[in-house]
Amino acid sequence: DIGVVLDDLFPKLDLRREVSLLSSAEELADWLTEKIRVICRRQQRFENIRHRRAIEFMIDYIHENYADDITVSELAKQLYISRNYLSQLFKNATGETFNSYLTRIRMEKAKEMLLEGKYLIYEIAEKVGYKNTPYFSTLFKKYIGMSPSDLAK
Predict the structure, then answer these.
(1) Rounded distance between C-alpha atoms, residue 139 and residue 133, angstroms
(2) In this predicted model, what pLDDT tens digit does every residue of 2-52 receive, in sequence order?
(3) Is residue 1 predicted with pLDDT exceeding 50?
């Protein structure tokens, strides 16, 4: 059910022989406990890889689609992971919430565009995903430490 193939984990396991050597319920319990530990460690490694890939996917997705309306729920559906669990994984991996990370990336991109001097502030706001320019300016000042118009000077 969890994707672990016992033949892969225990390639030389002769189940009948090993079980026949057990002489008490206590030995059987110890034997089963050890097999379960191996299976759980394998599953844990699999989950860690799967989680790492999910976070990498999210980060790549944010960097490629920061101008779009992106939500954790949307990404959770694509990754087949619950929204709350995915949010928790993301925060543990990056140290930031999904929304904070997305906003920071948007502000960094906006700062780059402002420094290029090719666009007006409202155009940059739209290009990084904000239709409300005053809201964009407030966030920009919070994240960058100065207003977009001050940086553009």
Answers:
(1) 10
(2) 455 666 666 777 777 888 888 899 988 988 888 788 777 666 555 677 888
(3) no
How far, in Å, CA of 116 to CA of 69, rounded? 24
Structure tokens at 94: 């990056």
| The token pair that represents 134 in the structure block | 């005053």
- Tokens 């206590």 belong to residue: 26
Which pLDDT belongs to residue 65? 96
Answer yes or no: are the C-beta atoms of 83 and 76 closer than 8 Å. Answer: yes
